[in-house]
Amino acid sequence: MNREKLSLNYRDNRKMTNTKAEVVADSLSPQGDRLTSLLITFPRIILAEVNTHRMLSKNTSSSRAIPFEKMIQSVEKDPFIPIAWQKNHKGMQGTEYITDENAIKCLNSMWLDGKEQAIHTAKNLYRGAYKMVADRDVDGNLLRGLVSEDIPDTGVTKQICNRLLEPYMWVTMLITGTEFENFFELRCPKYVFGENTAKPKIWKSKKDAIKDFPDWESEIHMMALAEAMYDAMNESTPELLKEGEWHIPFGDNIQLTYTDYNSKGIITNEGVIKKVKIATARCARISYETLGDNPKIDYEADIKLHDRLLLDKHFSPFEHCARAMNNDEYDTFIKGKLFKEDVGEGVKYQVQDLSSQGWCNNFKGFIPYRYMIENSI
């Protein structure tokens, strides 16, 4: 379990991190289930840990898709540097950190030296300069006979070159779900006051703890992300949807035309679907650009991208938009086993557990756009 128990009198020299989270859609179904979409930024080194949480739908910036020059610029301008240097330890969990300021400066410098070497090697591969350096060993010594004039005069794909830069990268992810409780339970730190008392007080967020202890500070990578997400959701008020209304990430920034509304100023069903298609394309664009990188608004291009994704069955971006269930759907969509009995006029099904009602794929209370596409509803 990637969780650490920390007392509120703990102090260290760990610096702040660029990890952040922003709510881009927050909805409450008529039955009381909350669906939230967050745009999060965090170090690439913990991506695998984030991806273990399968109840959450995700689309992530891809080192395979982002142009090489853009990746180099990003790593040079804003490299990830560990926010704390944990001492060597056995097993997965450590508790002790290096706190000597000179040691931390040296470690940061060594880390950045590694970044520069990674950039240098990646550039050589990308530009095809490997032919010039292939006749030397790692110390620069000549190695006769290793260079052949038959080596092709071409660079290496960005899909390989960008991989060298991953330890120094930040990634952006759109993450959507109704089930964040397990994520926060596993990933948030536990700030404990009065640990040895009968009723210790526990916080999962520094922002909550800081209300009572303003000078508190503590972060490590996965916990920093979990805290940022917890705080963003804690400070957001979900919009109460009526049955059939849609949860649409980035929807507030999508401006439709007058033809998408009826005479009463209410958006038509066609207008809603248009908005869903545009939002789905924007969810897909997370893999290779941020919305800020493409300031030009081109809804026609978004819809074409949506249609191409649909044709290619690239369905992960379709998981973030979702429609709020009506009561009949909530009773019908079941997760888990059912009882059945013969009541004379056919088989009657009974829900085994009320908590199993309202589930559609990994969402509760909402039907994902992906489900609707794949099942033609």
Description of the structure:
- The chain is an alpha+beta fold and 377 residues long.
- The chain has a five-stranded mixed sheet, covered by helices on one side. A three-stranded mixed sheet has the order 1-6-7.
- The longest helix has 27 residues.
- Helix 2 packs antiparallel against helix 3.
- The relative contact order is 0.17.
- The N terminus is likely disordered.
- The protein is globular and about 85 Å long.
- A hairpin with a 5-residue loop joins strand 2 and strand 3.
Multimer state: single chain
Largest sheet: 5 strands, mixed
Give the structural class: alpha+beta
Unreliable stretches:
1-16, 214-219
Looking at the structure, what is the overall shape? globular
Mean pLDDT equals 82
Beta fraction: 15-25%
Strand neighbour order, sheet with most strands: 4-5-3-2-8
Number of helices: 12
Order of helices and strands: EEEHEHHHHEHEEHHEEHHEHEEEEEH
Tally of DSSP β-strands: 15
Helicity, as a percent range: 25-40%
Distance between the termini: 40 Å
Round the Cα radius of gyration to an integer and report it: 25 Å
Describe the SSE topology.
Elements: E1 5-7, E2 20-28, E3 34-43, H1 47-51, E4 57-60, H2 68-77, H3 101-127, H4 130-133, H5 158-161, E5 170-177, H6 181-187, E6 190-193, E7 201-203, H7 206-210, H8 221-234, E8 239-240, E9 246-247, H9 269-285, H10 299-311, E10 322-324, H11 327-332, E11 338-342, E12 347-351, E13 359-360, E14 363-364, E15 366-368, H12 369-375
Parallel strand pairs: 1-6, 2-8
Antiparallel strand pairs: 2-3, 3-5, 4-5, 6-7, 9-10, 10-15, 11-12, 13-14
Helix pairs in contact: 2-3, 9-10
